[in-house]
Amino acid sequence: MLTHVRRRDKVRARLPNARLQEKFAPTEKPHAFGCKRISLENGFYELFGKPNVHLVDVNETPVVEVTPTAIRTSEKEWDFDHVICATGFDALTGGLLAMNVEGRNGMKLQEKWRAGVKTFLGLSVGDFPNM
After folding, report:
1. Mind spelling out the 3-state secondary structure of the chain?
2. Backbone angles phi, psi at 96, to 5 degrees
3. Which among 40, 15, 16, 27 is positioned nearest to 91, based on CA atoms?
4. What's the pLDDT at 64?
5. Fewer Cβ in 10 A, N or C end of the chain?
6. Contact (CB, 8 A) for 56 and 78
7. How far is Cα of residue 96 from the mean position of the Cα atoms in its chain?
8. Which of 124, 122, 121 is nearest to 109 (CA)?
9. Taking the domains of the chain in order of start, what are their residue ranges?
10. 90: number of CA atoms within 13 Å, CB side?
């Protein structure tokens, strides 16, 4: 099994510069392995070696405006042909919440889980008989 350091170093070797290496494979782990979505990619990191591909971290340079031909951040205006918006995902609760599940007395699952998802031994939820 690969250790964290070996996995990190394999990713870093595929990236063209220190900024991208630190963004995608930081030397200090931001979280334990597996706590965030694990990248199951094929050629993703190599894309960042192309002259027409840029990583824009909106935490560092927030989006100010989207126009028909560009995205303006606090740093500069980026002309584009295609925009890929990666917002993350919700693999488990997202689908259930999107179904607008209703339990006893008309309670919505969104309301039940408002303070966070709490389950026991799987996905059984009190007051939701079919769960």
Report:
1. CCCHHHHHHHHHHCCCCHHHHHHHCCCCCCCCCCCCCCCCCCCHHHHCCCCCCCCCCCCCCCEEEECCCEEEECCCEEECCCCCCCCCCCCCHHHHHHCCCECHHHCEHHHHCCCCCCCCCCCCCCCCCCC
2. -65, -40
3. 40
4. 96
5. N
6. yes
7. 19
8. 124
9. 1-51, 56-89, 90-131
10. 7
> Tokens 């889980």 — which residue?
113
